[in-house]
Amino acid sequence: MHKPLDLIGGSRALQAGVAALTLIAAGTQMVRADIIPYANIGSPNLTSYSFTASATGDIDAFFVGGGGAGFDNEMGLLINGVSTGIIGLDNHSSTTGDELDLGHANAGDTLVFVLQNNSLGMNAYSDPSLNVPYDSDGSVGHNHIYSTAYTATSPLLGSIPVGTYVAFEDLPFPGADFNYDDESFVFTDVSVQTHGVPDAASSLTLLGMGCGVMGFLKRRLSR
After folding, report:
1. 57-86, pLDDT tens digit by residue?
2. Which helix (H) or strand (E) covers residue 204, if one does?
């Protein structure tokens, strides 16, 4: 006995819908994963960032890596444009998990992370507007960092707590290799705002696809 064509069509539509939603769910999980280290090596990071203190208290930095960099680098911090005077976590002598208290901040204070390049005697900053002197004449962009959330799940960076991952590119533009892996840290009690194409755009796209699939299934199965 043959099944009615509308039931066959509905069944196939249901199967296709389930498969599509499975892919969407998998994609959403990928979006939520910690994308560490920087994924687009060789290409400048087009997303820039601004940072603020999420709570009143000390800003702690935890060293992730950067020992393979040719330059000798250390970490510092500007709070509301003023240096805390604390420099440390040398990329050639620190080990993953080493901690540095960069100073006290009040909730909402503006934070700018500083890469002190001891080899060049110059500083690179998490604020691209401050990097013009660091780069060669005619360079554009001046974004020397990559940042993303660190949730202490995947990857797992030893005992480093949940926080904001920030990784520096220490080579002056335009001759950098754009690996954003010359010194990297996780900072606690830090909020970040992205400028450019935020990661959330991918999630919204997937959500829209899911709604479209469900609407199609509802129309098809109601016939």
Report:
1. 999 999 999 999 999 999 999 999 999 999
2. helix 200-221
